[in-house]
Amino acid sequence: MLIKHIAIENFRGIKNLDWHVDGRMICLLGPGDSTKTTVIDAIELALAPRWNVPFSDADFYQADVAAQIKILVTIGAMPEALFSEDRCGLYLRGYQPFKPFNEDPEDGWEPVVTVCLRVNDDLEPHWELVKEGITDPKLISWRDRERFCMARLGNDVDRHLTWSRGSALSRITEGSADASTIFASVNRAASDAISNSEHEGLAKAAKKVKDAANLFGVQLPELSAGLDTRTQGFGVSALALHDSNRIPVRGSGLGSRRLTGLAIQHEGLGPDSILLVDEIEHGLEPHRIRRLIKRLCEEPPAAQDGSGSKPENGAVSTRQVIMTTHSPTPIMALNIGSLRFVRSNKGTTSIQSVSPERTDAMQSIARRFSHAFLARKIIVCEGKTEEAVLRSLDDYWERIHNGRSFATCGVVAIVGGGRSDAPNVAVELVRLGYTVLYFGDSDQPLSVSESDLKKEGIAVALWDDNMAIEERIAADLPIPVLQSVLDLARSRYNDGHVRTSLLDYLNHSAVQRSLRISDWLEAGIPESQLRIAIGKAAKCKKGEWFKDISSGEELGQLIASNLPEIASLPLAQTLSVIEGWVYAE
Fold this sequence. Notes:
The protein is α/β, with parallel strands linked by helices. Helix content is 37%, strand content 18%. Strands 1, 2, 3, 4, 5, 6, 7, 8, 9, 12, 13, 14 and 15 form a 13-stranded mixed sheet that branches. It has a four-stranded parallel sheet with strand order 17-16-18-19, sandwiched between helices. Strands 10-11 form a two-stranded antiparallel ribbon. Strand 6 (110-119) and strand 7 (125-130) form a beta hairpin.
């Protein structure tokens, strides 16, 4: 099954949300208070197979109980068994992405059902199937909602490591009703009875857990059912998974515990389930996160035959995973098409995906600068030199702004991929809800003009006089500092490399004899001419003196230490635009 559409009104931080859910693997990204977890909670509450769901005034938007909570979740790709009239048949609707519903499914329209959860000021929840034109919605019980196969993975993980009522482990146990019978003997003979009892259903379930956990990267010894002595009282909830040393699995570390619980729930839900995971990275190392995501993206085992090959009938799994994260690792591991960007503005939550025409450029950003998607403000740099210089300026500005760094201000600088890609990346990031500044050269036209960037709401910092960063630096730094720039290039390469690139723009015998600017001036070379030559030599493809991060950072340190001296010159003034944007409230 797949969720196709979600509408939320007056639930916690969401006054309204209208989201067409396109995708099987979805990861929600957004800053704090963007309502990512609230979206997950809303889906869970609407589809959860529970009857005793408590609500309070705090669950209403701004605690206004006069405005009804309404959560509508529309589900498609359903098994035909749910199409019968006694199930959902009379309430089928027609769905096409990003179009109004057709209340009677016709050719070209996917049959779907809409589950509505309503809560009024009496705080009593009501679950219904709704359809325009039918005045009497159909009440649906928790057992009806169980057919939608929704689970929140990792929620209440310790319970799923026991055979307690309703746990995932209980669901995957063959003859699960026998768990209570088995535990009757435990009450009579305590731990000896558990240790000596042989129950095929429990043993098979324990074996399934071991195999499933292995797929998620958790190496466990042989498992079996045992008495958990930490449990108060005797009942099926005390019947828990133990390892070969009779140690309960729920005594393992958080990461292993959580992955094992995820594996159990994953195993028991089947191929057509809807899985919710909040903060998928919680308690896990990066390599375990990547393994988990890979596993969740795979074809579910239940959709395959016993040989491990895909079924010949061409059946496709309709498992859907909706997760949130605050970690760069899942962003890096997932395809850019799986990312959804969540923003909240005065109670209105919006969820956007990357534009298809900008997929390639944004995929590159996700791989190289995944942490940037977790920031609020992004500086899109045309190239590596700009980003490296900003790293040094970050240190300098932190000292003069009372310890406030880029990180403190929620700012990340990234390399946008040159003048062709970087402006488009900046435009896309603004569309996705980020505050963006574009920082680049002005020596050649951009793929998106400066005026068009500003129309999109993007702050722009370009060098005056149609220059690249190397040319602007050479034009404005004092001569002694410019000599340090030249010496930095010599230390990174060699005198021959630097001299060769300079001679293309300053073909003078003084350059052939010496790489000291003072010698050039004494030989009669005009200062303006040598400044132009150094700038062009530094940026030319043959030279490219500062195109790696290390040399760019050293260049940035030279600039930062001399900013007060050149405060009135274009180099410092353009950088002050960036400084003002970074530290703007």
